[in-house]
Design a protein that fits this description.
Helix content: 25-40%
Radius of gyration: 25 Å
Number of helices: 18
Shape: globular
Structural class: alpha/beta
Strand order of the largest sheet: 13-12-14-15-23-22-21-18-19
Strand content: 15-25%
Distance between the termini: 75 Å
Largest sheet: 9 strands, mixed
Length: 548
Amino acid sequence: MPDRTSTSAAATTAKFIFVTGGVTSSLGKGIISASLAKLLQARGFRVTIQKFDPYINIDPGTLNPYEHGECFVTDDGAETDLDLGHYERFLNTPTSQANNVTTGRIYDHVIRQEREGAYLGKTVQVVPHITDEIKRRMLLLGQTGEFDVVITEIGGCIGDIESLPFVEAVRQLRWELPPNDSLVIHLTLLPYLAAAGELKTKPTQHSVRDLREAGLQPDILVCRSEHPIPMEMRRKIALFCNVKINSVIESLDADSIYSVPLLMLKEQLDDRVIKKLKLTGGAPHPDLDAWKDFLGRLKNPTEEVTIALVGKYVELPDAYKSINEAFVHAGAQNECKVTVRSIQSEHLNADNVAQLLHGCDGVLVAPGFGERGFEGKIAAVRYVRENGIPFFGICLGMQVAVVEFGRHVLGLPEANSTEMNPHTPDPVIAMMEEQKSITQKGGTMRLGAYDCELRRGSKAAKAYARNHISERHRHRYEFNNEYLARFEEAGMVPSGINPETGLVEVVEILNHPWFVAGQFHPELKSTVQNPHPLFVRFVKAAIQHRKV
């Protein structure tokens, strides 16, 4: 039997919360984790959240958005799971490479160590070598001294083969950590059977049984449900799942993910966690005044606008999750309900663009890779440019705006990005020379935060209310500065420049109500507490356009 004080786990000063899920995916582990973190943060505790994903990809950077939703990028250039976006939006604190770990990254590290002889000829196995590496990474953030609580979300469902090493690592950590320094929250589903007219607890019972067979006893059960859970049913769940009745937490479907912290507060989830972890030093009640103010503005708008989101992954809302959430934040800031109308860019062309964009008060052209739907985005940009409709371009959306302007204003009919046409005679968007020799996926991309100097008096500078900014990037192709003077003379000005490289970061059209496009991804830094200024100004421009 291992000595509880003999491992590196004893060196940490933080408390650890592990969040697992059962019955089905997409129950909302990320939202529950973020909501609990928000409640603890609102009491004065320093909290961070990390996500451990069981898939074998090194990171989600090469995954199709239809496979896994958007790829969220951190300041330090990590391509991560979209749940990290929830963490940042709720806590208003940045995440990093350390906040998202995959099975692929774990195995990659262990195999590299084995090749270097780090295991002294031992047979490398899942236990202890893989689980030891998982445990090491689970403890990293807690050992920095920066956090009182580290919440670790385990991806997938209990019972999945690929999740087993993570569950085993948690089991070992719970033994190695001092008493009252860790707890397990298990999220399950209570399905409602209309024919029987009642909720059913059996899936939850089976899920907890699977968890206990893996060696973990949950301390708290969070039960997702479409209907209130009767007290008698809570007693039944507590009895069969071996938890206290006040640790059976009801999680009803909410009208907004931002209502979940208040629902969890009502269920006293934070109280249960604080008592079980014996956390001291926090405020007796969370300060959620600013959060409630945000919800009040969100749910009681005085204006309403419709924004067209033009992209090629619009069938899956999670593909543009951060953009949609940034509109929620900006809408609340403007006391405006923002209805996002998703438009598949492949369906757009010069003949139907007016019909498909009819009634829209603004158009956002979304980021992406590849030529599919590119010409449809060109049609959308031309329509809004010529008709004075507020426009916002993000990443590829900026590149589309540059190509469209080159074709129809500068008179370069074959202007293009070398991503779409490597042999275009007018490569107004192209890859930098130093990137062309790199062949590994992801290696040619600008990833993470880069500085940008904004032109004084520009729309972008007025939106930010400052001239120096830092934004996150995820792209390969850049504005070709050989064409810079011609674009500026024709009315598309580079209002944002990277001070080190001279690369164009923002372009805008001066004689247009709102035509701004950025090479970066502003949606990734929008939070409840700090709505992104470009989204706020774009929504404001849409409100003004609607009134004209």
